[in-house]
Amino acid sequence: MIKIQRSPKPSILEKCADQWTRKLLAATTKKERGKAESKYRHEKIKDVLVNMFNGKCAYCESKITHIDYGHIEHFKPKGNPSYQALTFEWTNLLLSCAVCNGAEHKGTKFPSAADGGPFINPCDDQPGDHFDFIYDQTAKLATVIGKTTRGITTEILIGLNRNELRAQRTRRVQSLLVIKNYAQTDPEAAEILRQATLDDAEYAAFARSLIL
Ligand SMILES: [Zn+2]
Questions:
Q1: CB within 8 Å of 56: residues ≥ 6 apart
Q2: Cis preceding-peptide flag for 187 (omega within 30 of 0)
Q3: At residue 74, what are phi and psi to the nearest 5 degrees?
Q4: Alpha carbon of 198 to those of 30, 125, 208: distances in Å?
Q5: What's the CA-to-centroid distance between 158 and ligand 1, angstroms?
Q6: CA 59 to ligand 1 centroid distance, Å
Q7: What is the rounded CA–CA span in Å between residue 61 and residue 50?
Q8: What pLDDT, in 10s, does the model give residues 170-197?
């Protein structure tokens, strides 16, 4: 996870969020609620989020948009009645992959401070204050390690070290470590390493930790 600067609120939300929220809160049937709720999927909202997150998941930094549409993720889950009024709240919207956002991981969970939450939000928090991004040379694994209570809760509940994700991330880090050996003498290698640390690069938090 890396820090993301939130883009200005899309104009469609400036214009419609209040009205959409009133309709949603006034809905009395499941069908009405579903229809009212679905407005958040507006493509003008999605486009801004895809841009803002460089097509990557807010939580796990996997590139999404070359293989999937990505989910508009409600940080405070819209499925929880306490947060229904935040369905169209710009600061509550992120882009996430289907796995981080799925029921097995984040789903409708949103732990309170008493339960180790809230989750780390890449737009509001400094992820580096809450996680270490460590490549273990012995285990040969690139692991996200929570270093605060909220970081640990986020790492565990959102599954930031799930097997397939960690394996993919590990392959990326191992390639970068080889490239790093050449970076002192080969400008192309140095450039590849530099690009790996940019906001739009997959698993940039790990690449950044390698060049420190
Ligand atoms: Zn993800």
A1: 62, 63, 64, 95, 200, 202
A2: no
A3: -95, 110
A4: 43, 18, 9
A5: 8
A6: 5
A7: 12
A8: 999 999 999 999 999 999 999 999 999 9
141-165 pLDDT tens trace: 999 999 999 999 999 999 999 999 9
Please tell me the predicted confidence (pLDDT) of residue 122: 98
Q: Tell me, in angstroms, the distance from the centre of ligand 1 to residue 22's CA.
A: 31
Q: How does DSSP assign the chain, residue by residue?
A: ----PPPPPPHHHHHHHHHHHHHHHH--SHHHHHHHHGGGG-HHHHHHHHHHTTTB-TTT--B-TTT---EEEESS-TTSGGGGGGTT-GGGEEEE-HHHHSTTTTTT----GGGT-SPP-TTTS-HHHHEEEEEETTTTEEEEEE-SHHHHHHHHHTTTT-HHHHHHHHHHHHHHHHHHHHHTT-HHHHHHHHHHTSTTSTTHHHHHHHH-
Q: Of 185, 129, 160, 170, whose CA–CA distance to 58 is shortest?
A: 160
Dist. CA 5 → ligand 1 center (Å): 18
CA 127 / ligand 1 centre spacing (Å): 15
28 near 12, Cβ under 8 Å?
no
| 74 in Cβ contact with 90 (< 8 Å) | no
Mean pLDDT, the chain, whole residue set: 96
Phi, psi of 121 (to 5 degrees): -110, 120
